[in-house]
Amino acid sequence: MKQTMKWQLELRESIRKPTDLVERRVITPDQLPAIEEIHRNFPFSITPYYARLIDWNDPNDPLLRIVTPNIQELDLSGSLDVGGEADNTVEEGVQIKYPSTVLMLPVPVCLAYCRFCFRKRLFDPEVRGEEVVKNLSDALTFIKAHTNVNNVLLTGGDPLVLKTSELKQFLIFLREVDHVKVIRFGTRALPFLPSRITSDPELLELLAEVSRSDKRVYFVNHINHSRELTPEVGEAVDALMKAGVVLTNQAVILRGVNDSSPVLRSLLNDLAAWGITPYYLFQCKFISGSGHFRVPLGEACALFEEATRGLNGLAKRVKFIMAHYSGKIEILGVEKKDGEAPRIYVKYHQAREESLVGRIFSFPLPNDAFWFDDLPGVANDPRFH
């Protein structure tokens, strides 16, 4: 019988019970029933490794905020599918929003759970598993038949929850599909469980076998704060780079986590220094139960401008993005003129409607706008919906 790996043992020891939060004085006994209700619909789980990074004595610790449930999640304003992923689904667990990219959702489980997750609907016990790949052969056959697809994103849930033998089924097949040139992993393994990488030589051998000059494997990481960059993560980064994996990062502007320009600047600088390309910085979506993480657009734009001022060119590669139903919208900036309302300028990098790609638009920017749909004129314009 195959020996259980270190990362699997650590994952089994994750903090998963609301009563654990009472013991750690994160919540009061009076709050326990509400947290248990939240946990039933959107579970929480914190790896022992990540728990060691948290300052449990600080109720405002940014890492604590990322992974522990809060009674504010009872406010269910918003949507569970802001991006319209139901409309993108072409096979069970297979999505296409843009012609050259396929998303595959192999598993409805994560190593730990971000409380602002835009796919939290996947983890509801009543529907868990409904939107993930059920027939791997059908999913892979679909990709092989669509020669316009040049990159495949394995996303989540977190694909690194799968055993390496299971990941191998995806990677070896995709390696043989000539028109697929890039294989991406959307994963939080680096910040949540770096031992997933460092304790599994079989995984590193597989990645080195597949990631070559003619077909490259990318890890699209999700690191939101510099405190998530530890020596253990550095060891995993070095191992992935030696295996030929390209590392990028997507972060989200989050209230109480990284909503200050020094914190954001430090994150972008550190990522670039570590060889992890700062790729996208997202405006937080209006996901049901996550309104307390959102920052108004005007404030977020000012944060981004201040944080990126003075960065070197490598760190400045990051783009500030709204991942909207209509497409991937870069926020170019805000113009302020004396006596006039500020205007926000945006550009479509990707779009459901091809005619929008590359288009630049400007809109008045109200103080209470948090999202593209909040900008005057957007809600009633059929091009954007």
Descriptive notes:
The structure is a single chain. This protein is an alpha/beta fold and 385 residues long. It folds into two domains: 6-294, Aldolase class I (TIM Barrel), CATH 3.20.20; 322-385, no CATH class. It is built from 14 helices and twelve strands. The chain has helices at residues 6-12, 18-23, 32-41, 48-53, 62-67, 85-88, 136-145, 164-175, 189-192, 195-198, 201-210, 231-242, 261-274, 297-308, and strands at residues 89-91, 94-95, 101-104, 151-154, 182-187, 216-221, 246-253, 277-283, 319-324, 327-335, 343-351, 360-364. A twelve-stranded mixed sheet has the order 1-2-3-4-5-6-7-8-9-10-11-12. Helix 14 (297-308) links the parallel strand 8 and strand 9 (319-324). Helix 8 runs parallel beside helix 11 (201-210) and helix 13 (261-274) packs across helix 14 (297-308). The termini are far apart. 40% of the residues are buried. The model has no long low-confidence stretch (mean pLDDT 96).
